[in-house]
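= Paired protein data =
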Amino acid sequence: MVIFSEEDKIKSYEKLKIWQDSIIFVKNIYKFTEKFPKEEMFGIVSQIRRASISVPSNIAEGWARRHTKEYMNLLSISLGSLSEVHTLLVISKEIGYISDKDISEIFDEINKLKKMIYASINSLSKKIK
């Protein structure tokens, strides 16, 4: 099923607020992970960065496919990537790389993006019923 009623007006995924906010999230993750120990650059830092990059990438891919079910699936993958980032940050805190204070803003961003993605999925699911 082809999608897009309100999205029809948007000619590029780059105009989607959810995509724009997820790009900012990736930039923030990169800045944040610069504080990690250098020996983690190819370990946990690399994994956190890859998972964060997956969020806007899957939003863009889903939007570009222009089919509701595929878009919803890729939005769901973005949710999984956000949960992966969250988990990796919790692990980083537990092993002493970062503090609760350090990650509170990132967790707020994760929660904001999750809400946006859930809202998009819910909106799209109404179109296929």
User: Anything to note?
Assistant: Residues 100-127 form the longest helix (28 residues). The radius of gyration is 16 Å. The helical segments are 17-33, 44-65, 68-94, 100-127.
